[in-house]
């Protein structure tokens, strides 16, 4: 650890602390703190030492040891501070790989990324940053006294805006962490960033205040995981403003495991880290079991048939409560016969859509059982995972219906469904431009495609080639969109479908109360 003084172009000095976490690598993360905290306050000090590369932490805006006119919200001065730090360490041979900011430091790095090119920077991490200046100013104006008297004189226009954060490049992964008990900037600031930044992950920390007292380990672990995930293939795929690929959770031995929460809804935001979706759990490793325990998952909904469970096993060995809620019964509508009664006769989206419509009609009891099982958790303390074999078709439909009932828009629901392509790593023979599929990703499925094609050909009495099998394995969002359009026309939307399945209006409202956080951005 060493103190560093940087002379800025205006003749003032920027003072910070350099932590040599990885001597010789010459990679650096800048940590920008805000007011009134100091760069050496406990949370930032622990974070600086826990990161995998060297860090330089400082307070933006002329605060603490840095020289200048202390100002609460002056974007120009904060940009100059970041310019100076980046220039200085670049001249020292460092490669700046990440920017992390807390409070107004978080807002500063997001503003900076919206107007400055950041070659080499791999991620941005915003910890309790400010979006709505007026709301924060009401708090600080009462408590900071004369130290920020120049704020109003130097602030031009709004602090952050939809226009500015929308300019952050879509290939730049951004994490926002925010405490649900933040007493300075409430969680609506975080939701605003989540709704507007193109490639964004939102992590809400239960019980945490603005400085994360008593929650250091939790938020630091979240940041460390995000840094690792940002180097993975998921962060290189095309993103959407309502989701990002870091919602995937690594559960060894389980395919396609990811969080179905965190999406913007017309009622607020779908509760994160509660409803998960995945492929089958029977091959989970010991490390995977530990990951489930860390997520607090105590309940499982298995929507596969009895035949599949007998043949492939279930989650009974995991110490969780399992609810069997098959979408199809045995016999005529078994998964094998349904299997490709529709979808393997054609590679067109309409074929798969018709198969899904049939599945949802016959699967109403399973959908209803799944929702009632979720509602049994009276205090929302027992996260649940819904799974089938691959986490694509049956799981995808159940989750789509739930998200639609929770007020998530159709575009986002279809995008969530399409994420299966990234998580199962299916390489298409003829990739479609509209799909979030990286052509450099190789097929990563255990089944031998030729053998699978022969098996399916025998089952349905029609020749299926390898290309047909690959088409079967791909999640096509346009197919799901046709399904939802059909439900809208036939039932008037998700509520009508669920009522036809036996779910009451009161149960639908209870589902929304439990799975939606009533927070929305003030835009």
TrEMBL record:
Molecular function terms from GO: phosphoprotein phosphatase activity
InterPro entries xref list: AB_hydrolase_fold, DUF915_hydro-like, Prot-tyrosine_phosphatase-like, Tyr/Ser_Pase_IphP-type, Tyr_Pase_AS, Tyr_Pase_dom
Keyword Hydrolase found: yes
Domain of life, source organism: Eukaryota
UniProt KW keywords: Hydrolase
Domain (Tyrosine specific protein phosphatases) ranges: 365-410
Name of protein: Alpha/beta-hydrolase
Species classification: Eukaryota, Fungi, Fungi incertae sedis, Zoopagomycota, Entomophthoromycotina
């Amino acid at each position: 650890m060493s103190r560093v003084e940087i002379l800025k172009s205006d003749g003032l000095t920027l003072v910070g602390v350099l932590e040599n976490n990885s001597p010789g690598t010459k990679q650096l993360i800048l940590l920008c703190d805000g007011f009134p905290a100091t760069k050496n306050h406990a949370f930032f000090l622990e974070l600086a030492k826990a990161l995998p590369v060297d860090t330089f932490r400082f307070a933006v805006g002329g605060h603490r040891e840095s020289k200048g006119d202390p100002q609460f919200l002056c974007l120009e001065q904060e940009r100059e501070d970041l310019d100076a730090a980046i220039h200085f360490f670049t001249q020292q041979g460092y490669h700046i790989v990440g920017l992390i900011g807390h409070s107004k430091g978080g807002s500063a790095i997001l503003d900076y990324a919206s107007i400055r090119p950041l070659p080499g920077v791999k991620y941005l991490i915003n910890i309790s940053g400010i979006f709505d200046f007026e709301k924060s100013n009401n708090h600080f104006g009462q408590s900071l006294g004369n130290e920020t008297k120049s704020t109003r004189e130097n602030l031009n226009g709004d602090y952050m805006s939809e226009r500015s954060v929308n300019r952050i490049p879509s290939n730049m992964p951004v994490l926002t962490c925010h405490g649900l008990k933040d007493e300075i900037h409430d969680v609506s600031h975080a939701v605003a960033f989540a709704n507007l930044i193109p490639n964004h992950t939102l992590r809400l920390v239960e019980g945490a205040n603005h400085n994360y007292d008593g929650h250091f380990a939790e938020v630091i672990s979240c940041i460390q995981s995000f840094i690792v995930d940002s180097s993975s293939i998921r962060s290189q795929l095309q993103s959407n403003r309502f989701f990002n690929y870091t919602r995937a959770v690594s559960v060894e031995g389980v395919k396609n495991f990811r969080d179905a929460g965190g999406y913007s809804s017309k009622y607020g935001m779908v509760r994160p880290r509660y409803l998960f979706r995945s492929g089958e759990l029977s091959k989970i490793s010991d490390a995977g079991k530990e990951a489930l325990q860390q997520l607090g998952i105590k309940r499982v909904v298995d929507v596969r048939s009895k035949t599949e469970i007998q043949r492939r096993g279930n989650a009974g060995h995991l110490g969780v409560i399992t609810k069997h809620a098959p979408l199809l019964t045995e016999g005529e509508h078994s998964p094998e016969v349904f299997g490709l009664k529709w979808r393997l006769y054609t590679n067109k989206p309409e074929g798969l859509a018709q198969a899904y419509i049939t599945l949802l009609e016959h699967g109403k009891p399973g959908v209803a059982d799944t929702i009632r099982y979720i509602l049994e958790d009276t205090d929302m303390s027992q996260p649940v995972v819904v799974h089938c074999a691959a986490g694509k078709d049956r799981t995808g439909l159940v989750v789509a219906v739930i998200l639609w009932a929770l007020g998530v828009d159709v575009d986002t629901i279809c995008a969530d469904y399409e994420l299966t392509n990234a998580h199962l790593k299916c390489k298409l023979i003829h990739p479609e431009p509209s799909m979030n599929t990286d052509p450099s990703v190789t097929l990563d499925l255990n089944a031998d495609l030729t053998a699978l094609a022969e098996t399916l050909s025998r089952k349905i009495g029609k020749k299926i080639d390898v290309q047909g099998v690959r088409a079967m394995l791909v999640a096509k969002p346009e197919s799901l969109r046709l399904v939802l359009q059909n439900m809208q026309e036939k039932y008037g939307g998700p509520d009508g479908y669920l009522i036809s399945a036996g779910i009451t209006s009161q149960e639908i409202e209870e589902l929304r109360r439990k799975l939606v956080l009533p927070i929305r951005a003030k835009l």
